[in-house]
Design goal:
Layout lengths: L19 E5 L2 E4 L4 E4 L2 H4 L8 H11 L12 H12 L5 E5 L2 H19 L6 E5 L8 H6 L16 E4 L4 H4 L7 E7 L1 E2 L5 E2 L2 H14 L2 E5 L23 E4 L10 E5 L20 H16 L2 H20 L5 E7 L2 E6 L4 H9 L2 E2 L1 E2 L4 E4 L7 H22 L1
Helix pairs in contact: 2-8, 3-8, 9-11
Length: 396
């Protein structure tokens, strides 16, 4: 937007002073022609890189066929995508929507209705975790374990309690008579890139089995290969009752999905949940091409290999850096925690041609696409290590 012009948008985003107009692979260009190496991927969305040719071809073909019909009709491509997702997960059924928040909203509704109408009990409370992030609708921001997203939106809906993340000893004390489910991320991405501890997840599963609770895993940022497997939960050897996903599923085309096990199907009968734009032919074409590309090219496995390389290089460059507190994460979801706030560091990286995003005030979040090259990894790490070296010198 030109200098001095008044925007007609609500100012609900703290936008960077940058207008991006073109993307290809790991590169973005702004409206001034400046080039950037993208280690943000639209917040874990463009996991095949920008404008991937396989997805573009599928979208172009679909645009000549059919854009939208109501879900009152059968949409064959929904069945195809649902089959791909259930064949590659522990789930048996899928509900398509438009975003991660909608997927989590569907999961919350399904958990409540399964208890009410299938198990015939009055349980409705869901345990979530401090520093979690599950969305911006009233229900999902209430499920989120961060007070900052709730400011000014009272009264919030009841039915959520917040346990400390990765505290196995404390968790059982949060299970009450009205608890129906436990909902968590395998890596708290917005909360600071904090992976779930295997012993903690073992206790979560034990409590769910002991108390007949549903286990809901939010894979919106971790899903679709980013952590080194198609879904992050696979690395923990568990089988969630409900899985939610969005972001990378459509390579940038808006789509969300809630996956559930067979026992939950009777809870979502005709008329119980719906969305106008969920599962449109256009969204399905983008997602099918995305999933098929990820599977055919074994991109989760590639992400695991690139992750090992990136962590090795980051440790080599930063382990002796006094400004860096910890390097952590899973796959290509990586956090660098620093001893001081990093907002100005994000700005300097952008000025040097590298796009990264924060995960809280002290954590740099790296989200390169799953096809990122080793040369681009080297370039991105060189920029970051140079900036962080300067910060360490300044601290001393």
């Amino acid at each position: 937007m030109g200098e001095g012009m008044k925007s007609s948008l609500f100012p609900s985003y703290a936008r960077y002073p940058l207008a991006l107009v073109k993307g290809e692979g790991s590169r973005l260009w702004d409206d001034q022609g400046n080039e950037y190496l993208d280690f943000a991927s639209g917040l874990a969305v463009t996991s095949l890189g920008h404008c991937p040719p396989q997805v573009k071809a599928a979208l172009v073909a679909q645009l000549d066929e059919l854009w939208h019909v109501s879900n009152l009709f059968h949409i064959p491509s929904q069945e195809k995508l649902a089959g791909l997702l259930t064949a590659n997960s522990c789930a048996d059924a899928v509900f398509f929507c438009n975003s991660g928040a909608e997927a989590n909203e569907a999961a919350i509704k399904l958990a409540r209705r399964y208890n009410s109408r299938v198990l015939n009990n009055e349980r409705f409370e869901i345990i979530t975790f401090q520093q979690s992030f599950h969305g911006r609708t009233l229900a999902t921001l209430t499920a989120t374990g961060q007070d900052k997203v709730k400011d000014g939106f009272l009264p919030l809906p009841e039915g959520f309690v917040y346990a400390p993340f990765n505290d196995a000893a404390a968790l059982e004390g949060f299970v009450k008579d009205k608890t129906c489910a436990i909902m968590l991320e395998m890596v708290q991405a917005e909360g600071g890139v904090i992976p779930a501890d295997p012993a903690f997840i073992k206790e979560v599963v034990r409590l769910c089995e002991k108390n007949d609770l549903l286990l809901i895993v939010d894979e919106i940022q971790t899903g679709m290969g980013r952590t080194g497997s198609l879904f992050a939960y696979e690395q923990y050897g568990i089988k969630p009752d409900i899985i939610t996903m969005a972001k990378a599923l459509g390579s940038g085309f808006p789509i969300g999905a809630m996956l559930g096990q067979e026992k939950l199907i009777p809870a979502f009968t005709a008329g119980t949940h719906a969305t106008t734009f969920g599962g449109t032919p256009i969204a399905m074409s983008a997602a099918i091409a995305t999933v098929e590309t990820m599977l055919e090219q074994k991109l989760p496995e590639r992400a695991a290999r690139m992750s090992a390389l990136i962590f090795e290089k980051l440790h080599a460059e930063l382990d002796q850096n006094s400004f860096v507190k910890e390097i952590r994460g899973a796959g290509l979801l990586i956090g660098i925690e620093c001893v001081q706030p990093i907002a100005d560091l994000i700005t300097e990286a952008r000025e040097r041609g590298l796009l990264v995003v924060p995960a809280g005030p002290h954590v740099i979040r790296l989200l390169p696409n799953l096809l990122v090259s080793e040369a681009d990894v080297d370039k991105g790490i060189q920029i970051l290590s140079s900036i962080l070296a300067g910060r360490a010198a300044a601290v001393v």
